[in-house]
Structure formats: structure tokens, C-alpha cells
Design brief:
The chain is of the alpha/beta class and 171 residues long. It has one domain: Flavin prenyltransferase-like (Rossmann fold), CATH 3.40.50.1950. It has nine helices and eight strands. The strands form two sheets. The protein has a five-stranded parallel β-sheet with strand order 2-1-3-4-6, with helices on both faces. Strands 5-8-7 form a three-stranded antiparallel β-sheet. β1, α1 and β2 form a beta-alpha-beta unit.
Length: 171
């Protein structure tokens, strides 16, 4: 199963289609959403796209641990906030708690940065730190002064590649 973490970039509007395309490619998808993402699209939209309840807060079910050993943690869009907090292992929300738990289990993590280009440049060191720790990235499309969400097809292909690579490594 892919755990799709949706954060507060306007690119969150593309995540319903991303989840649907992942499912069309045979993947089960479970969604975590940040508070900021919930102001852009509703959890109901993502529940529709994934057919599963959306995690917006941690409960006694310890969702961040429960879902930390799935096939892939996909952070799309990945904001400067979530990338930078993860780079320094700050856990103050459900998505960062999940990322840290997954990292501790060597679960593959794929981030899809999406933000203003000045922010993307400003967090370059944090992206490099994450890459050096084994986190994978799909590069954004640079246009109109923004690091824009890449084509959904590219995200799906990279997600499937990482899942297959991880399964081959375990055999």
C-alpha cells in the first residue's frame, strides 16, 4: 500500500487525480493530510479517491506507526515546511511523525516538492540532506517562478519503480 501524504501547497488540488491514477495502476492508497492541505481540498475528496478514511490527526490507534511499514510513503506535494522538518526529524504533526517512523523502518520515502522557486532554493540544503539519507525525490517543473508539481504520470512511474526496487531488495 502507498501512504499518500498531502501537504499545504496549492498542488494538493492534483492529489485526487494522483490517488486515482495510483489505484488504476493496481496500488492501494491510504491518505494522510496536513491541516493546511485540508484548507485547500477536503478529506472527503481524498477518501473518495482512495476509498479509505483519511488520517488528519493521530489517535490512540497510533496511525503514524501502524502505516510506517507500507510499500511507500509518498509526500505529494511536499512543502518547504514538511521537507525541512523531516530533514531535522521534527515530529509535530501526523505526517512528520509518520515520516520519522517510516525512516526508522527503512520504508521507502518519495517526496514531490511543490512551492515558490525562492523557497525551493532556500531549502536546497535540506533536500540534499534528505537525499543523502536515502529519501527519493521527483524534481518539480520549474516555470513561472515556481517549483511546480510535475506530471502525475512521472510521480506514478517513480512510485511504482521504488516499490518494485524495494520488493526486489527484500527477496
Amino acid at each position: 500500500m502507498i501512504i499518500l501524504c498531502v501537504t499545504g501547497s496549492i498542488a494538493a488540488t492534483k492529489c485526487v487525480q494522483l490517488a486515482r491514477d495510483l489505484r488504476r495502476n493496481g496500488q492501494e492508497v491510504k491518505c494522510f493530510m496536513s491541516d493546511a492541505a485540508c484548507k485547500i481540498i477536503t478529506p472527503t475528496s481524498m477518501e473518495f479517491a482512495t476509498t479509505k478514511p483519511v488520517v488528519t490527526e493521530l489517535t490512540g490507534q497510533i496511525e503514524h506507526v501502524k502505516y510506517s511499514q507500507e510499500d511507500l510513503i509518498l509526500v505529494a506535494p511536499a512543502t518547504a515546511n514538511v521537507v525541512s522538518k523531516f530533514a531535522y526529524k521534527i515530529s509535530d504533526n501526523p505526517i512528520n511523525a509518520l515520516l520519522i517512523a517510516a525512516y526508522g523502518h527503512d520504508t521507502p520515502i518519495l517526496m514531490v516538492p511543490s512551492m515558490h522557486d525562492s523557497m525551493y532554493k532556500a531549502i536546497g540544503e535540506n533536500i540534499e540532506k534528505c537525499k543523502n539519507e536515502g529519501v527519493h525525490f521527483v524534481d518539480p517543473k520549474m516555470a513561472e517562478g515556481k517549483a511546480k508539481f510535475p506530471d502525475i504520470e512521472n510521480i506514478v512511474l517513480e512510485s511504482l519503480r521504488l516499490i518494485n526496487l524495494n520488493k526486489a531488495d527484500k527477496e
